[in-house]
Write a sequence for this structure.
């Protein structure tokens, strides 16, 4: 994603944040309480990712304007992810007969493919200028690959962003003292996102299949070996960070920053590294601090919830999370 695409998206990021805050206002009760923040965050993430990839708003943040097509797409994206996990990690019975999970997976895939294809066909170069979609359409690949790339980008973006945003809100709710600084300083909000990625990265561990024989820390590994990089474990080690289990955004600011960066250069890598680095990195680094700052400007966030994690390809919050968004005066 080029810096130009990102610059074009900055105003949209603020518009999305504003709509998100209005949406929270509608959804919370009179005490600011929201029973299940996950369901709301996923709508923000679908809206945001589709805005970036397709240059199109689907209306998820205005409860009365969302179309049936958009609702079904959201449902298909959710179910697709869940069924993919069950098919991949469950007993591989689907290899012998079409299990229920397998059938739902195929149904969701077809629905997502057809819907995105329809959206792509609706677009003209003028309306999509500056979007990721426009860059993909200009790429030197065939039409089916272009459609697959658009779907990959949407699917890869939504769940990673959803988990990251829930983790970020959770940490900021648990460490309310940081909220004053977030309101005053976007750099502080950025430091919060880095610290949240250090403590709770969603896409971990990183995986590689070796193309050639290699020796790593005296272990001789043959070509074809799968190597998993558990950098998230090193991110919680005292050897690398002081008070490693505490949320301390200040470690990414001022004098402390140099020390944290030298310890963390290859440890805090939520988007991976090298040739396969996440193409959504710049986009996420742009939107997360904006979403955080705008939300905290509008609401005091708190929660009694105790986070539990589960693995579903990504590291995700287990179950729904309740949170309070008390309107600031
Ligand atoms: C907080 C949000 C996100 C996180 C934490 C994240 C993380 C990652 C990670 C760790 C990888 C693997 C990199 C590697 O192996 O070195 C990856 C790959 C990828 N990501 Fe993201 N991602 C996020 C958001 C997005 C978004 C918004 C998009 C698209 C708009 C996206 C599209 C992709 C794609 C297409 C790949 C595969 C790249 C390849 O294999 O060459 N991601 N992401």
């Amino acid at each position: 994603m080029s810096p130009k695409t990102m610059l074009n998206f900055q105003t949209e990021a603020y518009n999305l944040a504003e709509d998100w805050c209005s949406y929270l206002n509608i959804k919370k009760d009179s005490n600011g309480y929201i029973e299940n923040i996950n369901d709301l965050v996923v709508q923000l993430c679908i809206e945001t990712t589709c805005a970036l990839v397709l240059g199109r708003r689907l209306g998820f943040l205005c409860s009365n304007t969302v179309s049936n097509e958009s609702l079904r797409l959201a449902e298909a994206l959710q179910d697709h992810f869940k069924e993919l996990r069950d098919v991949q990690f469950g007993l591989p019975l689907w290899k012998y007969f079409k299990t229920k999970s397998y059938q739902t997976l195929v149904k969701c895939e077809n629905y997502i493919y057809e819907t995105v294809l329809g959206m792509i066909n609706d677009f003209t170069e003028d309306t999509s200028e500056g979007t990721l979609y426009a860059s993909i359409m200009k790429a030197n690949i065939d039409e089916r690959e272009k459609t697959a790339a658009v779907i990959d980008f949407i699917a890869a973006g939504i769940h990673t962003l959803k988990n990251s945003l829930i983790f970020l809100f959770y940490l900021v709710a648990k460490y309310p003292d940081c909220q004053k600084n977030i309101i005053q300083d976007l750099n502080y909000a950025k430091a919060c996102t880095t610290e949240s990625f250090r403590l709770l990265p969603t896409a971990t561990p990183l995986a590689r299949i070796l193309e050639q024989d290699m020796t790593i820390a005296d272990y001789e590994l043959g070509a074809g070996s799968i190597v998993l990089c558990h950098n998230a474990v090193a991110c919680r080690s005292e050897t690398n960070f002081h008070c490693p289990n505490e949320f301390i955004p200040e470690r990414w600011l001022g004098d402390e920053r140099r020390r944290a960066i030298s310890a963390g250069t290859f440890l805090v890598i939520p988007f991976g590294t090298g040739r396969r680095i996440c193409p959504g990195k710049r986009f996420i680094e742009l939107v997360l601090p904006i979403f955080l700052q705008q939300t905290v400007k509008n609401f005091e966030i708190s929660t009694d919830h105790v986070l539990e994690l589960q693995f579903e390809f990504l590291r995700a919050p287990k179950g729904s999370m309740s949170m309070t968004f008390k309107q600031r005066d």
Remarks:
- The domain at 3-200+279-327 is CATH 1.10.630.10 (Cytochrome p450).
- Residues 143-174 form the longest helix (32 residues).
